[in-house]
Amino acid sequence: MDSLEKQLICPICLEMFTKPVVILPCQHNLCRKCANDIFQSSNPYLPTRGGTVATGGRFRCPSCRHEVVLDRHGVYGLQRNLLVENIIDMYKQECIRPSPERKVDQPVCEVHEDEKINIHCLTCGIPTCSMCKVFGSHKDCEVAPLNSIYQTQKTELSDGIAMMVGNNDRIQGIISQLEETCRTIEDSLQISQLHSQRLHD
Fold first, then answer.
1. Domains plus CATH for the chain?
2. pLDDT tens digits for range 39-61
């Protein structure tokens, strides 16, 4: 889409083409308003009607510098590029169209292929389906809804992380205390050595 968008940028206003879009004889495109703006700046003495040059004139294509000669209709005599206008419409529709929600595939039971896994067997420690609990190998096991197990494990994980962070803070505090104690011992040792040297002197 990015490369397409670059092709739909007007070289004058540097925005996406605003309809109507006109195609120049050199096959480059401009917004009609932008074409009129550069036409007027290139032909300041031509008579205007309602802000638009009302008679023929000439200007250079901003992309290739090819001279564009207009008839008595001015920029209104330039052919509209309906293809580009249609592409712009389709591009804008694509941009505003909500992206389809991604469907998450829920795993299914290996034994009962039409059943989605929705419970967790606490006895065996594995996820399974309701049919396995009712008729299958887990009918005598203790089970819990898969969602509740997920929430429990999520809470335990969050608590574990919080505990690790707390322990880390405590360890950092102990390290800081040890470093301070080492500095104090080093300072005391230096003072003691200086005092001993003075006694010997």
1. 2-96 (3.30.40.10), 119-200 (3.30.160.60)
2. 887 776 665 555 554 566 788 88
Quick check: 88 and 19 in contact, CB under 8 A?
yes
Neighbours of 9 (CB within 10 A): 13
Which residues sit opposite 52 in a β-bridge? 49
- Per-residue pLDDT of 154-200, as tens digits, reads 888 877 777 877 777 788 788 888 888 998 998 888 888 887 777 77
| Conformational region of residue 74, where left means phi above 0, alpha means psi within -120 to 50, and beta covers everything else | left
Q: Output the CA torsion sign for 107, 110, 112, 114.
A: positive
The structure tokens listed for 106 are 């829920």
For residue 108, count other CB atoms closer than 10 A to its CB: 13
Closest by CA to 86, choosing from 21, 39, 132, is 21
